[in-house]
Amino acid sequence: MLLSRETWPLLDRYAVGDRGARDLLRARPELVVEVPCDDAGSPVDVDTPAHLPRP
């Protein structure tokens, strides 16, 4: 997911704890642009380098 700079001020109200920007995107669907991906890679949620898969 990529958030444009114009959405950053909105994140204070919505991105709380582990919820990330989920509530913002649900409340403001006009901000969402779907981009097709044939190979999305791994769907693993990575928030910090410690979350990266180890070989």
Secondary structure tally: strands: 0
**Tally of DSSP helical segments:** 2
Low-confidence stretches: none
Portion of residues within helices: 10-25%
Radius of gyration, CA atoms, in whole angstroms? 13 Å
Largest sheet: none
pLDDT averaged over residues: 81
Written account of the structure:
With 55 residues, the protein is an all-alpha fold. It has a domain at 1-34. Helix content is 24%, strand content 0%. It contains two helices and no strands. It has helices at 8-14, 22-27. The longest helix is centred in the first third of the chain and has 7 residues, at 8-14.
A few lines on this structure:
The protein has 55 residues and is an all-alpha fold. The protein has helices at 8-14, 22-27.
Search tags:
55 residues; 24% helix; globular; mainly alpha; 2 helices
Question: Can you lay out the helices and strands and say which pair or pack?
Answer:
Elements: H1 8-14, H2 22-27
